[in-house]
Design goal:
By secondary structure, the protein is of the alpha+beta class. The chain is 63% helix and 15% strand. It contains 8 helices and 4 strands; from the N terminus they run H-H-H-H-H-H-E-H-E-E-E-H. A 4-stranded mixed beta sheet has the order 2-1-3-4. Helix 1 (2-24) runs antiparallel to helix 2 (28-44), helix 1 crosses helix 6 (94-109) and helix 2 packs across helix 6 (94-109). The two termini are 39 Å apart. The model has no long low-confidence stretch (mean pLDDT 91).
C-alpha cells in the first residue's frame, strides 16, 4: 500500500505538469498523440521497459535510447519531458505517468474508461452497444474500452466504470444462483 502511495506521489505531479504544459502551449492534441505512441512502444517492448527501470544503466545510455527511438517521432516538448524524467531519475515511472496523463486527458475530453472483461472477443457491434450503454450510464461524450478476455467467465461480460460494476457474466449469474440457493438452506 505504501509503495503505491509513494508511486502516486511521484507520478501525479509529472503527469499534471506535462498536461499543464501541453495546455499552455495549445499543443494538447500533439502531446496526447505522443504520449499514446510512447505508451504503446513501451508496452510492446519489454526490453525498453526493463532498460528504463534498471538503475544499473546510466542516464547517458537512457537518453541515447530516447533519442534513437523517439527523437524524430515525437514533439520537442515530449522529448524534453522524457529526458527530464531521466535527469530526475523518474524514467522508471514512465508507464505509470503515461497512465495518469491518459486519465487526466479523459477527464478533460469527458471520456469514460470502461474496463470490460469478456469470455470471447467482442464484435464491433457488441463494443458499440457497450459504449452506448456506458455513455447513457455516465453521461460522458464518449467511451474508451479496455477489453480483457477471460475464458473463466464462461460467457457474458463484466463492465467496470469507475466504482460501478455490472456483472452480466454466466459465472456471476451462477455465483448469485448458488448464493440464493444456499441462503434458503
Amino acid at each position: 500500500m505504501k509503495s503505491s502511495s509513494v508511486s502516486q506521489a511521484v507520478v501525479s505531479p509529472y503527469a499534471e505538469a506535462l498536461m499543464s504544459l501541453a495546455q499552455e502551449q495549445n499543443n494538447l492534441d500533439a502531446i496526447a498523440k505522443d504520449v499514446r505512441f510512447v505508451g504503446n512502444t513501451l508496452s510492446d517492448s519489454v526490453e525498453l521497459s526493463q532498460l528504463f527501470a534498471s538503475p544499473l544503466i546510466g542516464a547517458n545510455v537512457k537518453k541515447g535510447v530516447i533519442e534513437s527511438v523517439f527523437g524524430s517521432q515525437v514533439d520537442a516538448v515530449t522529448k524534453s519531458f522524457l529526458l527530464l524524467l531521466v535527469d530526475r531519475k523518474r524514467i522508471a515511472f514512465l508507464g505509470e505517468i503515461i497512465s495518469e496523463f491518459k486519465s487526466l486527458l479523459r477527464v478533460i475530453d469527458q471520456v469514460s474508461l470502461a474496463e470490460v472483461t469478456t469470455a470471447l472477443k467482442l464484435s464491433r457491434a457488441q463494443e458499440d452497444t457497450i459504449c452506448d450503454r456506458v455513455k447513457a450510464m455516465t453521461k460522458s461524450k464518449s467511451v474508451e474500452l479496455a477489453v480483457t478476455i477471460n475464458p473463466d467467465l464462461i460467457g457474458g461480460v463484466i463492465i467496470k466504470v469507475g466504482s460501478q460494476v455490472v456483472d452480466a457474466s454466466i459465472r456471476g449469474q451462477l455465483r448469485r444462483l448458488k448464493s440464493s440457493l444456499t441462503a434458503g438452506v
